[in-house]
Amino acid sequence: MNSLGLNLILRLGCICAKETITVNSRKYRVREHLGEGGFSTVLLVEDVVTHKKYAIKKIVCYGSEDQQLAMREIEYYKLIKHPNVIECIDSTRIGTADPILNTTSEVFIVLPYYHKGTVANELERRARNCDYMNPIDILSIFLQICEGVKAFHEIKPEPLAHRDLKTANIVLNDDGTPIIMDLGSMATARVQVCGTQAARVLQDLAAERCSMPYRAPELFNVESYSMVDERTDIWSLGCILYALCYFKSPFDTVYERGDSVALAVMSAHVTFPENTPYNEDMQDLILSMLKVNPMERPYIYSVIESVHDTIAKLEGRV
């Protein structure tokens, strides 16, 4: 057999050997890897029957705690039904995680695929051309993100906090509607911290699961006797609104330089670029959420009200 024929067979073999994933009797062919985090991999897949594209989040669990966290994430998807929060289409667990037996389990979560990508992708594209968005368009997008966050915060009997809100965790659907994704860091919002050990546990968990440029100050330095609540998300929303205006979180540059994000966040020294199409009303709205003391931060209902007021002011000036 000549080398051309052998290469053809090898290529065909690679195509035929394309990985497939079965979730509750539905089979999906893996098209490509979309992203990878410390705890999971996100794959672009195609239903082998309908050829419709989906995203599958694959979580490898090494112990019972990992497994419980993954299954809890699935419960959160089922619990929160909102147009600005991603839906779970299907899910399954394969195997049992047992470190003593040296076995792992895999949890697969089937999610919609949004080909437009994330808000972070859109802002990177705009940053290259200094293409600032219209202030009213920004506030319209931000308002929808806030409505999604409100769905977490008003869950009964106890509110939930997303804990990793950032532009990379918000996708855009075909008509540009923002949809919050990745509920893997979600947790009960209100935590009464009693003692240094409890503080250390929460701080370590935040370090693992909450992105630094969007992480609230009280999660960098958890006090031994304190209360942490859903306003951790309000800080992140302030960073998101800043990014919608200026393409990056106010603490992204510190992170990229390798300087201490914790110190920058704790001082909350936020500067605004000059010669941009955003006035003091927008800047005041951002700063109202970026209060170092969480007790001075508004709850989501007040944020939504302030966004409506700012939109009304801007429309009044048009």
Automatic annotation (TrEMBL):
Top-level lineage group: Eukaryota
EC top class, as a word: transferase
GO cellular component labels: Golgi apparatus
Binding annotation for ATP: 58
Stored InterPro entries: Kinase-like_dom_sf, Prot_kinase_dom, Protein_kinase_ATP_BS, Ser/Thr-specific_kinases, Ser/Thr_kinase_AS
Residues making up the signal peptide according to the UniProt record: 1-17
GO molecular function: ATP binding; protein serine/threonine kinase activity
EC number: 2.7.11.1
Cross-referenced CDD domains: STKc_16
Keywords attached to this entry: ATP-binding, Kinase, Nucleotide-binding, Serine/threonine-protein kinase, Signal, Transferase
Domain Protein kinase, chain residue ranges per copy: 28-311
Reactions the enzyme catalyzes: L-seryl-[protein] + ATP = O-phospho-L-seryl-[protein] + ADP + H(+); L-threonyl-[protein] + ATP = O-phospho-L-threonyl-[protein] + ADP + H(+)
PANTHER family: SERINE/THREONINE-PROTEIN KINASE 16, SERINE_THREONINE-PROTEIN KINASE 16
Homology family: Belongs to the protein kinase superfamily.
Protein name, UniProt field: non-specific serine/threonine protein kinase
Source organism of this protein record: Camponotus floridanus (Florida carpenter ant)
